[in-house]
Model the fold of this input.
Amino acid sequence: MITMQVIDGIGLPQVGLGSGWAVMVLMMVFIMRGTLVPRRTLEDALHDRDEWRAESRIKDAQLAEKDEQLRHMGEVGRTVDQIMRALPGTASEAKS
Done:
């Protein structure tokens, strides 16, 4: 058990000076490691993350629509090719 004599023997100015430096060094280490960041920086990072995800979903939907359109154009192209080959006289003209 800590008694008042032990606390008085430590000396508050020494404890205060050492603990202040320790807190400052600890905060500097946290800032350098990226553990402690300003709120605005964190909010900006979260906003960028959410915006990136939303843009990614929009881009995925656009790519899916483009794939569907290309698939449809391929089917139309095959149909036109079959029609052109089925017309009389085009097969002999294509060979010569």
Summary: The chain has four helices and no strands.
